[in-house]
């Protein structure tokens, strides 16, 4: 999820003592919530996959539709026969219907412990996308999605490869920590 205006959560500001109300140390707020654009994306070691805009509430049905009509065609065209899919343990990703979708289509899933910290490499790609658009203004959701899509396509494969190269270390760190937090 990418906000049209502002940030999620708390924003910390450093300022000199006695300058609490100085305008240069104030953060503008959006009273109406600001809006957001939700997206789904995937990538491999050879290319960035599609970035799909999600306009409805993301549930297992929407997720299955993305898998069938976005991920699967891209994977067939770009990945050949031997590949593995990684996802987090969000309930909509692990529902019986979705598990059945993967089974019926013979898509190999990377097993992921249910209480494991989320160090899925795509989280780093989302951060990269956020950094690339930091400070870029937008006036509506369509414009924001266009910006996201352009930034997504411009992420260098070197960034992706570095993340993928770290997967064995990430998995081993999780095993060593027995599911407790790791540096990832």
UniProtKB/TrEMBL annotation:
This is DDE_3 domain-containing protein. One of its GO terms (molecular function) is nucleic acid binding. InterPro entries: RNaseH_sf, Tc1-like_DDE_dom, Transposase_5. Residues 53-137 form the Tc1-like transposase DDE domain.
């Amino acid at each position: 999820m990418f906000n049209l205006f502002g940030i999620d959560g708390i924003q910390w500001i450093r300022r000199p003592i006695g300058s609490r109300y100085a305008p240069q140390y104030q953060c503008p707020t959006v009273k109406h919530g600001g809006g957001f654009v939700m997206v789904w994306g995937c990538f491999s070691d050879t290319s960035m996959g599609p970035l799909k805009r999600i306009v409805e509430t993301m549930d297992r049905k929407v997720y299955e539709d993305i898998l069938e009509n976005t991920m699967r065609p891209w994977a067939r065209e770009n990945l050949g026969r031997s590949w593995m899919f990684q996802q987090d343990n969000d309930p909509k990703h692990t529902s019986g219907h979705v598990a059945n979708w993967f089974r019926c289509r013979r898509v190999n899933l990377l097993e992921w412990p249910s209480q494991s910290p989320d160090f899925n490499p795509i989280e780093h790609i989302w951060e990269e996308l956020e950094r690339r658009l930091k400070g870029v203004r937008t006036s509506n959701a369509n414009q924001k999605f266009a910006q996201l899509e352009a930034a997504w396509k411009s992420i260098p494969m070197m960034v992706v490869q570095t993340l993928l190269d770290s997967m064995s270390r990430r998995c081993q760190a999780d095993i060593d920590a027995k599911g407790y937090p790791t540096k990832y």
